[in-house]
Amino acid sequence: MTIRAAHALRAAALAGATLLASGCAVFSPVQTDVDYPAGDGVRLSIDGLELRNLALVVPEENGTAVLIGQAVNSGTSAVDVTFTVQGAPTSAAAAIPASSGDTLSGTTTRVEIESLPAAPGDNVELVVSTAQAGENVVTVPVLPATGYYEGLTTG
Predict the structure, then answer these.
(1) d(CA 53, CA 143)
(2) What is the 3-state secondary structure (H, E, C) of 66-79?
(3) Residues 3, 6, 10, 15, Cα dihedral to 10°
(4) Which pTM was predicted?
(5) Distance between CA 97 and CA 58 in Å, rounded?
(6) What secondary structure letter does DSSP report for 15?
(7) Which helix (H) or strand (E) is 57 found in, with range?
(8) Distances (CA, A) of 117 to 55, 57, 86
(9) Are 115 and 62 in contact (CB under 8 A)?
(10) Helix residue ranges, H only, the chain
(11) 147 to each of 45, 106, 143, how far by Cα in Å?
């Protein structure tokens, strides 16, 4: 084999490898094209209310859990919401003001579920009820009261 033929063979191999490597992303989906909740919780869209990043934070099994997330009411009147977890002794309620995006763990709309029958790491079915939308069930994660959720629950 001559030097000229060896250079041509190397150039062809390099060009082929470049084309092959540059085509890898052609068959892979672009992650930003996939809609996903960018947080710890899940979302629920119902008539009159958009609930985002819903999760329950609890220090231990059967402890008092705090519902985290955001409730967006873009309507012209307040929406009364009831939150229920099967097995918990009581429900919790919140009034979401009109034209607002209140956090559910804040001081004005704090939502607590007493004696949550789940431990951190579990998932529970949360029933969200309003007069306009009726009962809606969503599976939410139960998170430990650690890290940036530390101090959210009373222990």
Answers:
(1) 12
(2) EEEEEEEECCCCCE
(3) 100
(4) 0.75
(5) 26
(6) H
(7) strand 49-58
(8) 14, 12, 8
(9) yes
(10) 3-22
(11) 28, 18, 10
Residue 25 backbone phi and psi in degrees, to 5: -80, -10
pLDDT in tens, the chain (155 residues): 788 887 888 888 887 777 666 666 666 666 666 666 667 899 999 998 999 999 999 999 999 999 999 999 999 999 999 999 989 999 999 999 999 988 888 877 889 999 999 999 999 999 999 999 999 999 999 999 999 888 887 64
Tokens of 54: 């819903």
What H or E segment, with its residue span, contains residue 43?
strand 42-46
Q: What are the b/e assignments for 117-150, b being 16+ CB within 10 Å?
A: bbebeeebebebbbeebeebebebbbbebeeebe
Amino acid making up residue 146: T
Neighbours of 74 (CB within 10 A): 11
Amino acid code (one letter) for 29: P
The total number of residues shown for the chain amounts to 155
Placement of tokens 């001081």 in the chain: 107
Structure tokens at 65: 């859990």
Task: Compute the distance between CA of residue 87 and CA of residue 89 in angstroms, rounded to an integer.
Answer: 6
